[in-house]
Specification:
92 residues; elongated; 2 strands; two-stranded parallel sheet
């Protein structure tokens, strides 16, 4: 499955175990998402997830998503914009 970081947060917000193919965009989530490197690993990780033994816990998955929800992102963008406006106003 192709996964971009924003979609990963949406998946994490559900709290269920996630299994993904090894991709650069997924590696930063290796503490929350099982990464399969082969078809055999893919099957093994899905079996673990279905048995309730996914990477991390539902609580930590949801918390990771909460740290990156849209409210947090909007606050971050507003901060960047304010910083840019301040710099522009300081120019001679």
């Amino acid at each position: 499955m192709a996964i971009d970081p924003l979609k990963a947060h949406e998946y994490l917000a559900v709290g269920l175990p996630i299994v993904a193919a090894d991709q650069v965009s997924v590696r930063e989530f290796s503490d929350q998402i099982a990464i399969a490197h082969s078809p055999d690993e893919w099957i093994a990780e899905i079996e673990k997830a279905l048995a309730g033994n996914g990477v991390s816990s539902p609580k930590t998955r949801v918390e990771r998503a909460r740290q990156n929800d849209w409210g947090v992102r909007v606050d971050l963008f507003e901060g960047w914009l304010q910083e840019l406006i301040s710099k522009k106003q300081c120019r001679p």
